[in-house]
Write a structure and sequence with these properties.
Oligomer: single chain
Distance between the termini: 30 Å
Largest sheet: 7 strands, parallel
Strand order of the largest sheet: 3-2-1-4-5-6-7
Strand content: 5-15%
Length: 272
Amino acid sequence: MSFQNKTVFITGASRGIGKAIALRLAKEGANIVVAAKSVEENPKLGGTIFSAAAEIEAAGGKAFPVQCDIRFEDQIQKAVTAAADHFGGIDILINNASAISLTPVTLTEPKQFDLMHDINVRGTFFVSKACIPYLKKAANPHILTLSPPINLDIKWFASYAGYTISKYSMSMITLGLSAELKKDKIAANTLWPRTTIATAAVKNLLGGEALMQISRTPEIVADSAFYILSKSSVDCTGNNFIDEDVLAKEGITDLSKYSVVPGAKLYTDLFI
């Protein structure tokens, strides 16, 4: 499928995996809606909707930066409507925005719990809902959510139940959408990395520079997303994809270029 002039609405697209997917699709001529909160740069995080938009246009795509906090339905609806008006519709939705707190129940504050569920669960749910009317009018429409396969091994609940529940909820929403929207020929799938990805969250919240050095770059997820979104929305839906598996099916097995440090022993991501 050609991405030329296809409009892709990406939450959390100002940095990390969201921006990497945006740049990958921009190279194919896509219109990218950069939907995120950041309008002023945080030195620890880097990037704003405006800096990401500039990179997208330099890569060959068209960008529409729109400030949007997906915890709030009014902001979601305003952003989706503005994006559809600007580009004439929405063809693809990437549910990328997410919050993380790897804390056990006893150490999880209500503010942390609510943030994860407001962004990961409610945000994914209501951004999807807002985009569906436009996706129904699109050719080969896709919803792709950055969330894991549902692995009920107790170890994933033992140390950070709040985060696990929120990420699995994103996957359950997506699986529900795949069934609900099948009659409309709208694909809904999830994508998750086999190894950790070098993002601001990994550096600032999880493992610092040490974990960054045994991670892969966001481009592996972006390339995987490209191949998923290239598939027929009629045939490719209801899947929990892993990035390595997606690339392997495309004949890509040498993944060394994605390592932050060439030859490093990589750290397996959560839920795998």
